[in-house]
Amino acid sequence: MADAMSQEKERRRKIMRGYFGIGIEGASKAMNVGALFRTAHAFGAGFVFTVAADYDEREGGRADTSDATGNVPFYAFPDAEVLLLPKDCALIGIELLDDAVELPSFRHPHRAAYVLGRERGSLSSGMIARCDYIVKIPTAFCVNVGLAGAIVMYDRVLTLGRFPPRPVRAGGPTEKLPKHVYGPPVLGRKAAKYRASPPRDE
Which is it for the CA torsion 144, 147, 149, 151, positive or negative? Predict the structure, then answer.
């Protein structure tokens, strides 16, 4: 069983470049947070986090049956101002705003952190101001925060992952995924250029 999980983790690592984290601001229902974190763990999140949230890991653990916070880095930030992300990591707010980008039209950055709002509210103005992008799921009304997170993570895997193309007719793929071809190493090209350069006169 452990070998199968290890192989699956390695397969996911090869599917998609970059990394992502996902979190929630102002959560009050630990079970929803636990469900979000469990789904994030399943999708291969690099980290999970809460902002200004009262999250009881013991209660949330009833939904987080994969023990995401025991296997993935977990950060609890007191407010949006001190939210700290890795270098060059884009912050993406998931919110139903009129001027937000619709998820099917959004190009996910390779390095990203997604943040969702509280169960019965929205992202704070401070959090929205910090976001590089605001994205909305094209639904008629808000959905459960755990479900919203799952939709966003699935869309990321769908658009950044490497899968065989969908067939024109109904059913599974009819073409195999082409083998990935790696280009020449960048450092090797630079080294070759330096070797080819004539020596300078002292």
Answer: negative
